[in-house]
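User: I'm putting together notes for a lab meeting next week and I want to include a structural view of one of the chains we've been expressing. I don't have a solved structure, so I'd like a prediction I can at least talk through. The sequence is below, exactly as it appears in our construct file.
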Amino acid sequence: MAEDKASPDYPASWYAASVPATPPRPPLRGRSSADVAVLGAGYTGLTAALALAEKGYQVTVLEAERIGWGASGRNGGQAIVGYGCDQDMIERLLGNADARLLFDFSRDGMTLLKQRIARHGIDCDWRDGYASVPIHARQERTLRADLERMAQRYDYPLQWWDRTRLRQVLASDRYRGAVFDAASGHLHPLAYAQGLACAAAAAGVTLHEHSPVTRLERGTRPVLHTAQGHVEADFVVLAGNAWLQGIAPELETRMMPVGTYIGATQPLGEARARALIGNDMAVADSNWALDYFRLSRDHRLLFGGQANYSALPPPGLRASMTRRMRRVFPQLADVTLDYVWGGYIDITRNRAPHWGRLTPNVYFAQGFSGHGVASTGLAGEVIAAAIAGQAQRLDVFERIAHRRFPGGAALRRPLLVAAMSWYKLRDLLW
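Assistant: Thanks for the context. Below is the predicted structure for the 430-residue chain, given as structure tokens.
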């Protein structure tokens, strides 16, 4: 195994092992003030900070650990147009007109992601192409209907590949075909987060690591408190997502942290890796408890899935992930996983994005529901625009109704585990 090569500042992963070590930024000490104070140095917080600094705001970001330490530095790396829920769910929540607006915003978010990478020279291994692949006939019917609907109602071009066409670029017999999205793609998550931080610092943002926020003091000038200091600001942005932990209880009741996991094989060599995924696209199946996979720049297979709603790591995770990988690619029977890692994502009950204001000067974004690589950056841009007085896009997101998870603090997770067991059973039966 190679996990001891990872930086001790980050959870062990291929991501942490494959980027240069960066010097830590100093923790916050003493009193400070800013135009905007941001909690969390993941994609949302860093993008909001960068956008605001470019508008002339003085911004301070407080990160409890290191840049991209949470989901932003550990996720599957798949950047996909849309949100964590299907578009038909957004139609039910908002109606067709607002649903179209939100989808167009998500397309803008993908464009902004690519522009950000190019403009700031972020070396994060961006690759174009994403395929959603059905295992069962029911899933194929659903995907093909969605493809037609996206073309007719949203003017969004997707391609249907039958089994023969898919087999030309994906060396697996498990899938019935694919919906291919040329606009989506994949990247190196931690390298992207670190690149955003460098861009933000160059724009004048003050970044403090190892500065966990212990309390939000609301008021005409809200304050973020840490153990060693505080930042007073005109505006606060809460971008802690699954790691918010007591700062804003009314947000936490509408969000559930869920564990998700990914592994990286040993280097396969370029020829063997390209034989698996010939066009270097990202792939995800259509199961509720899905598998997703892609290639790394050093010709590993990155294979993820195994979502866990119980807050405990699944037993025998490495063996389970290896079995799932070999079920997709039996030709990897001799291949092991050099790295296995995981972390928390935040889901809402309806899997729709939960972005808005707690008070007129405290903004938040959460509920990316496993679909955040592109939409987190959109959230940062939308919140930055609202702080600068252009709140039209945020107003649309705020019209989405979000209910609390049932059961209270004691029972909400067991109830969710029971519900997810039904969806996993459905994956097996249909």
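A couple of points you could mention at the meeting. The chain has a mean pLDDT of 92. The radius of gyration is 21 Å.

User: Perfect, that's what I needed.
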